[in-house]
Amino acid sequence: MEVSRDGSLIIFNTENKARAIRGSDFSKVEEYAMEPYGDVTYLSMDPKGQYIAVVSKERMQVWDVGKKKRISSPVFPAQIGDPCFGPEGEFLALGLGNGEIVVMETNYWGAHKTQGPVGPISVLTFSPDGRFIGVGTMAGNVQLWQIDKGLPLRLPKVHQEGAVWDIAFSPDGRRFLSASQKPAVQAWSTETGEPLDSLDLSDMVANSVAISRDNRYLAIAQSNGEVQVLEASDWRRTVYNYRHQLGALNLTFSPADPNLLASCGNDGLALLADVERRQVIQSFQHHAPVYRVAFSPDGQTLATGLGDGSIYIWRIGEERPVAAFFAHTFTVTGLAFGPDGRFLASASPGEQVVRFWDVSFPSANQHGVLYVAQPVIRPVQTLEHPTLIYDLAFSPDGTLLATGLDVGTIWVWAVP
Known about the structure:
Blueprint: E1 2-3, E2 9-14, E3 17-22, E4 28-32, E5 42-45, E6 51-56, E7 59-64, E8 69-72, E9 84-85, E10 91-95, E11 101-105, E12 112-115, E13 121-126, E14 132-137, E15 142-146, E16 151-154, E17 161-169, E18 175-181, E19 185-189, E20 195-199, E21 206-211, E22 217-222, E23 226-231, E24 234-243, E25 248-253, E26 260-265, E27 269-274, E28 279-285, E29 290-295, E30 301-306, E31 310-315, E32 323-326, E33 334-337, E34 343-347, E35 353-358, E36 381-384, E37 389-394, E38 400-405, E39 410-414
């Protein structure tokens, strides 16, 4: 049963029909049957009481209550779940049995657009204002999720080969970038979802992309090991290049100093470069390929996630790690500091759990290598999921944690 916002209309399902009655005296307004297609399985009414949607298996009918007229009768490729109108009745969303989500705009019932899972989620990140989550998938698709509506905008498929490996928003949030192949980097409008500029790197894959917080630099980690830094305002102008011995896998700018860029790669190194001075100023050696690198909010600590599931914690300017511990049984692909820098969240596509670690270690490890005996470090909290997790991200204010799953869905948690 549903009631319109002003209480004037009530709808309910009885005797295999949908019925509408007046809220004032319970008198009959109309009955809606799905004959000869079957019984009514679901129904929904927009908050203003203008439209009623009636569902039976793969079919749906939408009625204008005031005009007593059927205005849409779509048929879908799978059984329809419980439909739901938007808070102002501006759209009708429904889930299908094949995992898709369909959004129908109420100002033009003849059109509908399909949203929903488009392959395992490989990467996700919040926009600077926390209103959107940019998403890349293993199938090469890009999505933009609006937090308050919980609905994705599936963007045109631009990348022709491989997965989308990274997403980065501009500091003002008006644009975001996706990193993949052919093109290696694609810019998008956050407001409209339209593709903008693109950058091709021949046969090279862009494994990661980042924009400095002052919007001066665009950094790209390439599959051949090269880290390329361009002017963010003119991608034709190179500012600085340096290399990893093997593929460069991930990079990020310091939140405290826009000139500091950290990168990591298959060579087991994390490198800290000063872009303005055009030199690598520190090298962090690991025992295995490094897949993720993350700065603490104050820019003084660097966390690295390795291919064997271990995590290293480094202080900028120190030669030895503060700590090194096994966090997962498989590659660390999700790594992010919490808002206060004390806790670190991690995830791996080999497991169904996010782990939180207290990384407020007081002093540096005397040995600096993982295979020397380490104190047992246990997570302070875990978040269980129903399936494997590829990536995670904190919202800018630190109140939300988003996780991307291999079934193509996003979970958004209140930070514990």
